[in-house]
Design brief:
233 residues; 9 helices; disordered N terminus; SAM-dependent_MTases_sf; methyltransferase
Length: 233
């Protein structure tokens, strides 16, 4: 079957994903497992190949963008999850870094992951990506790794991200994409049933979300079931 084509998959109804991620017990169990697993890069690479048919090393490499920021940069990391990207900040970096997540439990995991120097750099915010509590044009960069597929409305999330980006500001991220790898689609059905994943979307959907939000795509590639993108306002 040609890459990017679709096949009949019943993804099931969209549950209240936001409520699931806000649940403290969920954060202490599933969230804690995810936060620890993502640190194990070797094992994560294996699972990336087995489930998503991709090299997740590309995701880790994209996260390195936060280490290269010039002084005075403003960064929004949303959803920040367990803080894997924030943990890459160099001691003494002079940036404003906001780590935001709807889950208080995941923010707790992120705080524990960071060194004291990193904690002095990072500002934590508990909020929904669909209603970002910051003004228009506040950020030079938004990083959104492994998050859009967990949201109830990815298009609304990207519109909000675009709103808070400065003119010329960049959005860098990725998400699990429907209709690319059969075993990944089966995995997404399970995650939807558990309330962990939202509706996600196809690669074509992602291009539309970015365009409708007024963003210009600079790089866009789907590898296995993971779509990587870079766009600017």
């Amino acid at each position: 079957m040609p890459r990017g084509s679709s096949w009949p998959v019943d993804y099931g109804p969209v549950s209240n994903v936001s409520r699931v991620w806000q649940n403290r017990l969920f954060a202490r169990t599933v969230g804690a497992f995810y936060a620890r697993a993502i640190e194990q890069r070797g094992a994560t690479r294996v699972l990336g190949r087995l489930i998503f048919g991709t090299d997740v090393g590309r995701i880790y490499a994209a996260m390195d963008v936060v280490t290269e920021l010039p002084d005075g940069s403003t960064v929004l990391d949303v959803p920040c999850g367990g803080g894997i990207t924030a943990a890459l900040l160099r001691p003494g970096q002079r940036v404003r870094y906001v780590a935001m997540d709807i889950s208080a439990g995941m923010l707790d995991h992120a705080r524990r992951r960071l060194t004291p120097d990193q904690q002095r750099i990072v500002e934590f915010a508990e909020a929904s990506i669909e209603a970002i509590p910051f003004g228009d044009g506040e950020f030079d960069l938004c990083v959104c790794f492994n998050g859009l597929h967990c949201l109830p409305d990815p298009a609304a999330a990207i519109r909000e991200i675009a709103r808070v980006l400065k003119p010329g500001g960049r959005l860098i991220g990725d998400f699990v994409t429907r209709g690319e790898v059969r075993r990944s689609d089966a995995y997404m059905v399970l995650m939807r049933a558990s309330g962990t994943f939202g509706p996600s979307g196809t690669a074509a959907d992602a291009r539309r979300w970015l365009a409708d939000a007024g963003l210009t795509v600079d790089a866009f590639e789907t590898s296995g079931a993971i779509t990587h993108f870079v766009a600017h306002k």
